[in-house]
Amino acid sequence: MNLPEDDILDNIPENTNGTKNGLFLNDTGELPMDTRRALVQLLSGPSLDGRRHSKLWTVLLRDEVVIRKFFCELFLELVIDYDMQVAFTRQADTDEDLPRLLRRAQLTFLDSVLLLYLRKLLAQAETRSERAVVSKEEIIEELKAYDKSTNTDKAGFDKKIHASVEKIKKHNILQKIKGSDNRFEISPTLKLLFSAEEIQRLINIYNQIKAGEIQIDKDQLPEDEGEEE
Q1: pLDDT tens sequence across 81-137
Q2: Does the pTM of the predicted model rise above 0.70?
Q3: Which of 118, 207, 120, 205 is nearest to 167 (CA)?
Q4: What is the C-alpha to C-alpha distance for residues 60 and 1, in angstroms, rounded to an integer?
Q5: Fewest C-beta in 10 Å: which of 86, 105, 193, 197?
Q6: Cα 12 from Cα 122, distance rounded (Å)
Q7: DSSP-assigned letter for residue 220
């Protein structure tokens, strides 16, 4: 349930100087501690996951109006999937040349293929009402299908696969399962980053590449740009 902004601010305790919510020296902020924590999680990203951040998820739902307003001031859009309990921020979609707060993450061809593979596994798991889980061995096997038959540097290609996996882990899309060193859960956030139409288009292109129907030098492809959350 969303509370009116005035009600939220009225419940903020006063510090010894008579100012609301003085959490540190010269603090002029008006939001309570837990709301600020939710804002920081969304800004630092890549997402706020209700399963992993249950307390912050409750705060987000409580203060959604205030939090949305805060991000609008920064030209950011708050995206929330209430069913999956996932939220993240992205740059507002506008024709205006606005300042960008979020950095751009460079994605190589293998990064893109890996994200597509994980997105497909996520969709398959969703139809079975299961958690989307994948092992590092399964990822390696999938990505090796895109190695050029003429490539003699197998060790170098394995390093590229490892780098892609580490990059996706860094962005919290692959989350290590407790008690396992090489099995990961795929974050539901990934579902919000790619539409069904985009997924099908990329699947068609990459299947043609895998089958050799499209002859390209993948090492020469320009890097795609993706937005860091």
Answers
A1: 898 888 988 887 776 665 655 555 567 778 888 888 898 898 888 888 888 999 999
A2: no
A3: 118
A4: 10
A5: 197
A6: 41
A7: G
What is the distance between the alpha carbons of residues 178 and 168, in angstroms, rounded to a whole number? 18
Give the torsion sign (CA, 78, 185, 37, 43).
negative
How far is residue 184's CA from residue 204's CA, in Å, rounded to a whole number?
A: 26
Cα 204-158-177 angle, rounded to 5 deg: 80
Query: Which domains does the chain possess?
Result: 5-91 (no CATH), 104-227 (1.10.10)
Distances (CA, A) of 142 to 66, 136, 138, 147, 202: 43, 10, 6, 10, 15
User: Cβ(112)–Cβ(201) under 8 Å?
Assistant: no
